[in-house]
Amino acid sequence: xxxxxxxxxxIGLGAMGLPMASHLATTFSVTGFDPFGxxxxxxxxxxxxxxxxxxxxxxxxxxxxxxxxxHPQAETALFGPDGVLSTxxxxxxxxxxxxxxxDAARDLAAKxxxxxxxxxxxxxxxGPVRAGQGDLLIxxxxxxxxxxxxPVLDALSSTLTMxxxxxxxxxxxxxxxxxxxxVHIAAAAEAIAxxxxxxxxxxVVIQAxxxxxxxxxxxxxxxxxxxxxxxxxxxxxxxxxxFVKDMGIVTGVGRTAHVPLPLAAAAQQLYLIAExxxxxxxxxxxxxxxxxxxxxxxxxx
Length: 301
Prior knowledge:
Blueprint: E1 7-11, H1 17-24, E2 29-33, H2 37-45, E3 49-51, H3 54-57, E4 63-66, H4 71-79, E5 94-96, H5 102-115, E6 119-121, E7 124-125, H6 128-133, E8 136-141, H7 146-156, E9 157-164, H8 169-197, H9 202-209, H10 217-229, H11 240-257, H12 262-279, H13 288-291
Parallel strand pairs: 1-2, 1-4, 2-3, 4-5, 5-6, 8-9
Antiparallel strand pairs: 7-8
C-alpha cells in the first residue's frame, strides 16, 4: 500500500497527539479525535479533520494511533460505546504511543487480539516540538501489523528501536527512559534550588554546568523553565501529574522485577509532593519551587 494512500486516525489531540497528527497530515490522510472543542479547532487549522468521538474518526482509517493520557483513557477510547473498535475495520493495526506500563499494554493487546486487531506497543519520547518535526524516539514491541504501520512510525521518528516482538516490550524500555528522565529533572531541581540557597545566579549556574560533565539534557532543557516557574511563567510542556503517573509505573515495574530503585522512588515523592501542593497541572519544572519556594531569593541576585 503506497504511503500516500494510508489513512491514519489519531485518537487524542493533546500536547503530543496534535503535533503528531499535524506532522502526519503532511504525508498521509489524517482524521483525529479529541473531546475538547478548542483542540479540535486547533487540529482543523493544521489540516486535520477532527471529530467529537473516536468512532467518527475511524471509518475510513487504515491505522488508529492512540495518544491518550493513561490506561483508563485507552480502554474508553478503544472499547467504549463510541470507541475506535465500533468503526475501525477488523485487522487494522492500532499504535499505542501512550506510556501505560507493560502490564497495561499486554492487557490491551489481549483484548484487541480477541477482537481481531493487532496492537503495536510504541511509546514515544521527545516532547511536542520534536513530535511536530517527526523527530521522536520511539521504542516498539510488536510483530503483527508492523508492515502496515511502519511508514507511520518512520514518519514520526528519528530514532526507532525494535525492542522485542511482544506488546509490553516497548513499555518496558519506556519505563527505563522515564526512570532516567524523572530522576534527571529532580536532580536538576535540587541543583538549582541549592544554587539559589548559596546566593549564586541560577542562570550562570545553568550556562556553566550545561557545558560540562555534570550537565544533562534535562538540566539544560528544564533549567531555564525552572527559573520561569518561580514567577509562574513556565510554559506547560510536560505536566507534573504525568510524571506522577510515569514514576508510579517505573517503581511498580521495579517491584515486579524485584529490582530496588531508590533514586526513582525519591524522585517519585518529589512529584507527589508537588501534586499535593496543587502543581499537578503545571509544567514539571515547577517541582523546583517545592525545594526552594522563597521567591525573594530569586530577585536578590
